[in-house]
Amino acid sequence: MYFGKKREQTDPRVPPNQNVTTSFPVLHHGNVPYYRDLTAWNLKVFGLVKEEKTFSYKEILELKQTDLHNDIHCVTGWSKLDNVWTGVTVKDLMKNMTILEEAKYVLLHAEEGWKTNLPIEDFLKESSMLAHSHNAEPLTPDHGFPLRAVIPHLYFWKSAKWLRGIEFVRDNEPGFWEKNGYHIYGDPWKEERFSWD
Asked: Could you tell me if 24 and 143 are in contact, meaning their C-beta atoms sit under 8 angstroms apart?
């Protein structure tokens, strides 16, 4: 668990048993990918959609760019307040795509076969986005450059770094951390940290 500056639990922005930090801890499993040439990078949207689409990095940057302000909460016990993310909202990304009715969940695919799952309603929330910058600076490789998901209302492992695919599916398939003991949903306000919670 992370032990940073403790805020009163009466602070409505801080979930139970979280410690506020001004740093940005780095946590991940596996290697950190480093990109020297983004012309080979792409993001695929596939699965239960009417027509699959693959976006280049250039095409992502050509979509409407939005700044979103939020707080983030890690399952390991830290919270970082007052973040500003820049990127494409999920709503804008999906604006010209049709999701099939049977799609109930989303799998976010990252480098090295890593993935995480979430209900489609959570992915499509107004606060969900794909970010390339944090606090007016491009993401560092450790924090998910060139693109990461930001799903701030869930524990931060659901905000997949090094995003490469968005798959719409019928069934709730657990991802890497969910298969290794983390909660299937991950609501920080209910402290849904582990599968036995």
From this structure: yes
